Amino acid sequence: MMRRVVLALLFLLSSLPAFAVNPDEMLADPVLEARARAISCELRCMVCQNQSIDESNAELAKDLRLLVRERIAAGDSDRDVVDYLVSRYGEFVLLKPRVNARTILLWAAPLLLAGVASGVLVAVARGTRRRTVAALSDQENAELQHLLASKFDGNQSKADA
Asked: In b/e form, how buried is each residue of 104-129, taking b as 16+ CB within 10 angstroms?
C-alpha cells in the first residue's frame, strides 16, 4: 500500500514542470487569477503559433502572462487587456479572431467553398443527364437490324436442332 502511495506521489510531482503557469506568476486574488487564466487561454503564443500563452513554456508566453496579470491587477477589464495586446501584436495574437470587416473573408471562406463545391457537383450531375445519344443514320440502323435479325435467326436454328 505504501509503495502505491509513493508511486502516485512521485507521478504527481513529476508532472509539476509540465504546468506552464509558474506559481510566481499567479495573482493572490483567486477571482483575478481566474480572469487572467481565461484571457491567457484566448491568446496565441507568438513563438509556438498554435498554443495559448497559458499552455506555452516559451519565454515570450511567460512575459505575456505576466503582462496580462499586471494589466488585470491595475484594474483593466478583460476587453481592455485583450485590446491592449491586439494593439501591440495585431489580430494574430487572438486564437479566435474577431468577426469584423478585415476578417469576414476568413469566417465566410468555409461557407463560400462549400457553396462553390455544391454548385460544381450540381452542374456536373445535370451535365451528365443532359447528354443525348446521337441518332443512328439510316445505314447504321439497317446494319443493326441485319445483325439483330441474324443473331435471332442463329439462336432459333440452334434451338430447333
From this structure: eeeeeeeeeeeeeeeeeeeeeeeeee
Q: Residue type at 158?
A: K
Contact 57, 20 (CB under 8 A): yes
C-alpha cell read off for 127:
451535365
Q: Which residues pair with 94 in a beta bridge?
A: 43
Q: 68-98 in b/e burial notation, b at 16+ Cβ within 10 A?
A: bbebbeeebeeeebbeebbeeeeeebbeeee
pTM of the model: 0.53
Residue 113, CA distances (Å) to 45, 81, 101, 106, 107 in order: 29, 35, 19, 11, 11
- CA-atom Rg of the chain in angstroms: 36
Q: Which three three-digit cell numbers place residue 54?
A: 497559458
Cell numbers placing 149: 435479325
Residue 62's nearest CA partner among 39, 88, 40 is 40
pLDDT in tens, 84-141: 999 998 888 888 887 777 778 777 888 899 999 999 998 888 877 666 677 888 898 8
CB contact at 8 A, 25 and 66: yes
Matching residue, cell 503564443 = 45
